[in-house]
């Protein structure tokens, strides 16, 4: 009888925790959908209007401009108004931007609409990992935060399928971009039933609500002990009259967070995602439909390989997966660059080597840099500045993204495909060194303990042993 009751409690405990995590992760659908849908839509936008490569670059990267603004202006707002309200705002803004895209009458209207969508993408990319890390028990925190990246890959795959569904339809690209209304509505319906995070509620002295949520997500844990630990962390960070909120010891976790974003973006992921169809057409795929089918396969690999991170990040640790992923990314980029460098000798084989290299790249990224980048930045930042610092890291993410995406086509035209991909390979080498020396292992360590290690000056390579 006792065994049955214990099992039942555990199932109920995990049920509510996973419901909360899955619903919050739906925000990743918005980011993923926007990332993937423009790849196919751009092929048909060019058939509606005569636009220059520079204008094409702005249609793609306008969302990134909006994302920088969205991430920058909402870090402090999430600390003031709570994580949940910011998630609700992202759904509303994304729905509005999707409708604006569908009814765009000029390229400039479309660019403006993409900026609006970007506002939502920037907000959701910092607030959802933050939300998930603050509700998750430390033993499965990596897995739950990985759900956000899984939702991003699901959004990308969904967008590729939408691109194929509407490829031969009248007003094809309008239907593609307007379909963003679907994930926005799903998020808005789901988030309505969730509360805010216990740690934010405690920071606002709403301990009773925090206690209720702690008990809901993990009824076997000592809610009072959690509240006292979080309260002690907040009080330890409370500035005196002579002390500023931002202290010197906080520089390192923020630097590592920005570095994680640099690794995630500047190894070239969104040149692969945004320009997948373009890369495949350069490599030899004859028509738009063939290129779109190839992207669907890439999207499926991206989605499925994210499960590796979900299942193993809390077992193997963050750094081992980062090492495996970065080596995979490095090999794929060297191969992709080599394929284009020897394109004349390879002939028709070029497109298949390009596909194989992109598959390897996406496989390596999806199991490591994609999810673990967001896991790490949501874990390592001090509670007192977590909203602001998470916003800063997200701004850096989209800032790097803007530079990489906007410069990709000009780089290809100026130095060629091979050297462009080899530049990203060089950044992958630097990322391996950065991970070894400066990135801490956070597996199985509470957020409060991670913060204590930073405050006491524990070297990053000793976090897991401390």
What's the quick description here?
This protein has helices at about 1-25, 25-50, 55-80, 85-100, 105-135, 140-165, 170-180, 180-190, 200-205, 205-215, 225-235, 250-265, 270-275, 275-285, 290-310, 320-340, 345, 350-365, 370-380, 385-415, 415-440, 445-455.
Describe this structure in words.
The protein is mostly helical and 466 residues long. It has a single domain (16-460), classed as Growth Hormone, Chain: A, CATH 1.20.1250.20. It is 80% helix and 0% strand. It has 22 helices and no strands. Helix 4 (83-102) packs antiparallel against helix 7 and helix 15 packs parallel to helix 18. The longest helix has 30 residues, at 386-415. The protein is globular, with a radius of gyration of 22 Å.
The CATH homologous superfamily is termed MFS general substrate transporter like domains
What's the alpha carbon Rg, rounded to whole Å?
22 Å
**Helix-strand pattern, N to C?**
HHHHHHHHHHHHHHHHHHHHHH
Mean pLDDT metric: 83
Number of distinct beta strands:
0
Strand content: under 5%
Which spans of ≥5 residues are poorly predicted at pLDDT below 50? 1-12
Number of helices: 22
């Amino acid at each position: 009888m006792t065994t049955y009751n214990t099992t039942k409690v555990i199932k109920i405990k995990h049920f509510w925790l996973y419901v909360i995590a899955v619903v919050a992760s739906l925000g990743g659908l918005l980011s993923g959908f926007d990332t993937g849908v423009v790849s196919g839509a751009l092929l048909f936008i060019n058939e509606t209007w005569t636009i220059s490569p520079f204008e094409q670059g702005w249609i793609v990267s306008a969302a990134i401009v909006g994302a920088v603004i969205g991430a920058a202006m909402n870090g402090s707002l999430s600390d003031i108004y709570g994580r949940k309200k910011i998630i609700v705002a992202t759904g509303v803004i994304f729905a509005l931007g999707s409708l604006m895209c569908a009814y765009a009458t000029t390229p400039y209207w479309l660019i403006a609409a993409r900026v609006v969508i970007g506002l939502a993408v920037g907000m959701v990319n910092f607030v959802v990992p933050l939300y998930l890390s603050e509700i998750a028990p430390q033993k499965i925190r990596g897995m739950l935060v990985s759900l956000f990246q899984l939702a991003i890959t699901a959004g990308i795959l969904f967008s590729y399928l939408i691109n194929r569904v509407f490829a031969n339809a009248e007003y094809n690209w309008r239907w593609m971009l307007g379909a963003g209304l679907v994930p926005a509505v799903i998020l808005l319906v789901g988030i309505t039933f969730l509360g805010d995070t216990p740690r934010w509620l405690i920071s606002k002295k709403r301990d009773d609500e925090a206690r209720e949520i702690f008990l809901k997500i993990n009824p076997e844990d000592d809610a009072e002990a959690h509240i006292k630990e979080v309260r002690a962390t907040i009080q330890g960070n409370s500035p005196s009259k002579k002390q500023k909120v931002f202290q010197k010891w906080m520089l390192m976790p923020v630097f590592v967070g920005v570095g994680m974003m640099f690794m995630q973006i500047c190894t070239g992921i969104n040149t692969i995602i945004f320009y997948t169809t373009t890369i495949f057409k350069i490599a030899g795929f004859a028509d738009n439909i063939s290129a779109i089918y190839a992207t669907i396969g890439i999207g499926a690999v991206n989605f499925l390989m994210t499960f590796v991170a979900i299942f193993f990040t809390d077992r193997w640790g963050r750094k081992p997966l980062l090492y495996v992923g970065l080596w995979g990314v490095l090999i794929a980029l060297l191969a992709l660059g080599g394929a284009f460098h020897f394109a004349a000798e390879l002939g028709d084989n070029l497109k298949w080597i390009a596909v194989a290299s992109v598959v390897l790249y996406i496989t390596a990224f999806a199991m490591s840099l994609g999810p673990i980048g967001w896991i790490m930045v949501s874990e390592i930042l001090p509670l007192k500045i977590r909203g602001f610092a998470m916003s800063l890291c997200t701004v850096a993410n989209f800032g790097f993204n803007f530079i990489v995406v906007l410069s990709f086509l000009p780089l290809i035209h100026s130095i060629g495909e091979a050297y462009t991909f080899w530049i990203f390979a060089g950044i992958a080498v630097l990322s391996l060194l950065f991970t070894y020396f400066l990135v801490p292992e956070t597996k199985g360590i509470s957020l409060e303990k991670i913060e204590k290690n930073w405050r006491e000056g524990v070297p990053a390579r000793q976090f897991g042993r401390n």
